[in-house]
Backbone:
């Protein structure tokens, strides 16, 4: 708990340590050192000065000469347990403390900085108040800038609450209209795009739908690849079944139509999947827009429910329309299309295919792939830059396309499988050895989407999935009849016709799908929000129940408004404070490495020095010979001793000479240091001990006032 308060940069730390313990091991000073390593906020307070051993004092510590702190120390004397049990009041304790500092020879010269001139609390309070005032003046500029930044950040949130009137009967109606209109504007901006509040972290709303239209949907169409072997086998079956028992002389049109319709039906799955993806993005957009209605939970739930229900209704109509488009394509095979190659061109394509092989390879795809064959790659998997063309697959150590030593020829089969480490991978199997002891290489991608994309690219390059061994054997047996050259020519011709017409259908579907979804779903939803949502809200529930504010939101609003007004008031108060007053600068740094010496460190022993100044009104207690004159020279005209022996005079001379150096060791003389007189409550007559025999008691005229 202490660290919670002293860790604040705007606070001053009072490190209180008793005088009768080792200062170097003070827990208070060590804790202050942790949070204030430069000592800018730490003030030392030394207590129990009256309980130190006889002949010792904390003068060097209080003068900041021993174990120094940057802001120094303050000495105080508290009430003892005996004083508390004796019902000693505060005034008497303050008077005793004042008398202690004024009468003690080691502290009287600094009594104005200790518990004096009137009391301990006044001295500590005055010093702390002065330093706190200086500290506040130093921290005001940073505090003002911090408050201003907080106020600016709150103004954006408080703006919507400035016109909030709970007692206004029309408030709920106005708020409902405003929120529904704002919801429609936000939804349209997220779909159509806008220049304000642009999300720079991720795609959202219309941008994600556009990506579905022009990236994901074409990719799904490419994934609907057909097996070249199966396609040729189906074409040959269709031709033979149409001819029946007769031997056909010409290529039948019905075989072409049957194969085309079978391929067009396969387009339904990617088209319906595209609709599902767009619906999911629309629902996510609606949820993001309704997040601003969090102040009214019932209104948010109803708005989200109504709009989502409408989107689901439009989903059915949109899918029906898309299926209708595909049925329309199936209803009539237009072989007179301008992009259709026709029968003559299909036959010529076979001869042109050989000529195209002489043309340089067209690059189909480039990208990074990882080769996982441990036996090929020494040291584990490695990443290479792959270049896929219509005739070869090459890889390099970097992106520079150069003549590499490694590569494949044309032909092969592709099969996807799971990588042992869990990442998707693809294996290429070739008709000849890639390396000396291997007939395959294993390629890995970063994601399943990349694997699908590379598979589609390999399909474009003529690399098809590998069939099982049993299927391959069955196919080899079944394809024995296809060795007829005339049938082979017919199969190749229909194959070219199917490829041309399916390309036309794909082009048409890719163009009509975004238009259909935009018209039947997205634009219709925008019109519904602007024109019919408010009516549905009025009919779904009571207006007052819709606009019931949550308790959390009401508490948050009140707290925010309170904080906003408190910040404004704080800035006004700071603006009224005069910062031009001359303040005491922060003391210069001191050597406080003694605080870092660890728990085993010990402070130097307290200075043991004889009392150079006798307590006023009390003679020293002596043993043996009578002491000589006082330690401090008495001014001319003052009282002096009338009789003394030569031995006592010599002892006094030694004491006086020794006291010229305040830091010298005490002389070895049979002299008992003077005790500090106990505190005497006001009004109680003091009891003086009897004077030494044959020695008059010396009382100075100015000192009796200190005992009163």
Residues:
């Amino acid at each position: 708990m202490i660290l919670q308060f002293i860790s604040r940069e705007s606070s001053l730390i009072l490190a209180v340590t008793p005088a009768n313990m080792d200062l170097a091991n003070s827990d208070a000073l060590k804790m202050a050192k942790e949070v204030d390593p430069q000592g800018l906020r730490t003030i030392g307070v030394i207590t129990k000065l009256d309980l130190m051993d006889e002949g010792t004092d904390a003068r060097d510590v209080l003068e900041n000469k021993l174990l120094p702190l940057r802001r120094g120390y303050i000495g105080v004397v508290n009430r003892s347990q005996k004083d508390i049990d004796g019902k000693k009041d505060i005034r008497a304790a303050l008077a005793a403390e004042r008398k202690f500092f004024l009468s003690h020879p080691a502290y009287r010269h600094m009594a104005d900085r200790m518990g004096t001139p009137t009391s301990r609390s006044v001295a500590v309070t005055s010093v702390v108040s002065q330093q706190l005032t200086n500290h506040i003046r130093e921290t005001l500029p940073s505090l003002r800038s911090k408050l201003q930044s907080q106020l600016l950040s709150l103004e954006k949130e408080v703006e919507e609450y400035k016109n909030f009137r709970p007692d206004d009967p029309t408030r709920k109606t106005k708020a409902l209209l405003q929120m529904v209109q704002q919801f429609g504007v936000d939804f349209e901006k997220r779909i159509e795009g806008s220049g304000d509040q642009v999300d720079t972290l991720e795609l959202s709303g219309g941008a994600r739908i556009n990506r579905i239209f022009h990236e994901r949907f074409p990719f799904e169409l490419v994934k609907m690849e057909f097996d070249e072997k199966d396609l040729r086998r189906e074409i040959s079956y269709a031709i033979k079944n149409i001819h029946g028992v007769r031997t056909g002389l010409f290529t039948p049109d019905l075989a072409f139509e049957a194969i085309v319709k079978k391929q067009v039906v396969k387009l339904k799955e990617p088209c319906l999947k595209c609709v599902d993806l767009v619906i999911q993005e629309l629902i996510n957009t609606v949820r993001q827009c309704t997040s601003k209605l969090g102040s009214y939970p019932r209104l948010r739930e109803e708005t989200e429910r109504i709009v989502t229900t409408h989107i689901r209704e439009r989903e059915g109509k949109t899918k029906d329309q898309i299926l209708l488009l595909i049925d329309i394509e199936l209803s009539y095979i237009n072989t007179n299309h301008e992009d259709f190659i026709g029968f003559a061109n299909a036959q010529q394509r076979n001869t042109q295919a050989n000529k195209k092989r002489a043309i340089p390879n067209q690059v189909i795809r480039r990208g990074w792939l990882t080769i996982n064959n441990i036996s090929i790659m020494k040291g584990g998997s490695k990443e290479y830059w792959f270049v896929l063309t219509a005739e070869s697959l090459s890889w390099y150590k970097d992106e520079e396309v150069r003549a590499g030593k490694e590569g494949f020829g044309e032909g092969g089969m592709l099969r996807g499988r799971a990588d042992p480490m869990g990442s998707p991978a693809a294996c290429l199997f070739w008709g000849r050895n890639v390396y000396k002891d291997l007939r395959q290489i294993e390629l890995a991608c970063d994601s399943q989407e990349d694997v699908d994309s590379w598979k589609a690219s390999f399909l474009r390059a003529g690399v098809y999935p590998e069939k099982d061994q049993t299927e391959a054997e069955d196919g080899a047996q079944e394809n024995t009849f296809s060795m007829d050259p005339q049938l082979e020519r017919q199969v190749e011709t229909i194959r070219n016709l199917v490829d041309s017409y399916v390309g036309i259908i794909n082009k048409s579907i890719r163009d009509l799908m975004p238009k259909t979804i935009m018209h039947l779903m997205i634009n219709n939803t925008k019109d519904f929000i602007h024109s019919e949502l408010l009516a549905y809200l009025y009919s779904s529930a009571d207006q007052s129940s819709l606009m019931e504010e949550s308790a959390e939101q009401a508490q948050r609003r009140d707290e925010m408004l309170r904080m906003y007004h408190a910040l404004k008031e704080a800035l006004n108060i700071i603006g009224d404070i005069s910062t031009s007053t001359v303040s005491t600068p922060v003391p210069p740094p001191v050597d406080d490495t003694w605080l870092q010496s660890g728990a085993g460190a010990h402070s130097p022993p307290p200075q043991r020095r004889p009392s150079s100044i006798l307590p006023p009104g009390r003679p020293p207690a002596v043993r043996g010979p009578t002491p000589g004159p006082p330690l401090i020279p008495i001014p001319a005209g003052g009282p002096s001793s009338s009789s003394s022996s030569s031995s006592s005079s010599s002892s006094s001379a030694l004491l006086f000479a020794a006291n010229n150096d305040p830091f010298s060791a005490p002389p070895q003389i049979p002299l008992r240091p003077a005790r500090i007189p106990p505190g005497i409550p006001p009004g109680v007559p003091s009891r003086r001990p009897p004077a030494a025999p044959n020695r008059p008691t010396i009382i100075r005229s100015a000192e009796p006032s200190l005992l009163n």
